[in-house]
Amino acid sequence: MSLNQVFKALSDPTRRQILNLLKKSDLTAGEIAEHFSMTKPSISNDLNVLKQAELVTNDRKGQHIYYSLNTTVFTDVLKWIMDFNAGERNG
Fold this sequence. Notes:
By secondary structure, this protein is α+β, with helices and mostly antiparallel strands.
């Protein structure tokens, strides 16, 4: 996991909305796209950025690819923030 990729992915409001959708359930790219007034290639690009940052994973089920949150990365980022914050207090 690259923190730079994670923060880049989180910097975009559309990608944050996609993550919020995936908190509720795993979704296909088409299901995700239904929530936005943008092109499917744009959604696909956002999903690729989220995958590169390892914030989402995908799993093929039949003809569909389902996207889900990778909570491990969120845990790692929170740990980094907590460690950073502790260092500031102790430093």
